[in-house]
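Listing S7. Sequence submitted for prediction.
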Amino acid sequence: MKHRSPYPVDNIMQSNLHSFGMLMKERKFESEHYRYGFNSQEKVDEVSGEGNSLNYTFRIYDPRISRFFAVDPLAIDYPYWTPYQFAGLIPIRFVELEGLEPGEPFETKKDAALNFSSIYGAFSIQENREYSATIYSYTDKGGNVKYTYNNPKRGSKAGAPVNPVRKKEGKAVAGIHAHGAFDRRYENNIFSSSDIVISLDQGVPEYLSTPSGELRIIDPSVDEIRDRVRGDPGTVVDGNSPSDPSDLDKVNRKYAVREGLTRKERRLEIKEKTKENRKTRKEYKQEYKRILKKRND
């Protein structure tokens, strides 16, 4: 699925590129040991030469022709686009997300958590509302164990509801939630005491997508949780999630909202983003139902 970017596309400092990512001749300044390029995706130079193949996890992209080598897994939902197109053919407006939608298979629970964080971490900051889901495992028709998360629930500024998996979905292996926008009144870059209690009650690890742009985890089976009253920072898993530009502890510039906004401008942006995200969440929910039905048939 093609989405408006929740944060600006990464600036590429070491190469000059054409709009769809093709290297400009004699305008390259990269080290031969650096394997990442356009949109911060890994280059697969062994396939078609330097900078001519990019690994978007689920498909290989050729920036010379602005096309993927394989059909879009969601092509059936977008008949008005060729299944090989990139970013809706408007790269200055859209980005191509390498993650799939909720319900799609991931190889590890960490991959599922990263996907949740990239999508719902942005929604959470944009709307200043918490989101929660449960990561679960299931066995596909080929006998392979896969991981995904159930349809996330939207909460309030102060919390999100527990979102357990149903028996027909699979076995819960971790919880995950996003803490909303940066707020000086709360330590919302760490796990709260209620987060810890829920993790202990569920008996599974808990992931957290923070407004600082980090994905963190606590695991009650192996971690010594330090303070159930004041909360716990957990362990950083990844630092590339969408961040809030207002967060003083932000670790990246992949901003979910624009920086430098006045309070009034930020309120208006939140209102607009909430409207856009509501439509996207509805589409995700419908797609998730179709995925479950197909999987269980």
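Caption to Listing S7: primary sequence and predicted structure tokens for the chain studied. Residues 1-13 have pLDDT under 50 and may be disordered. The helical segments are 45-48, 109-127, 193-202, 263-296.
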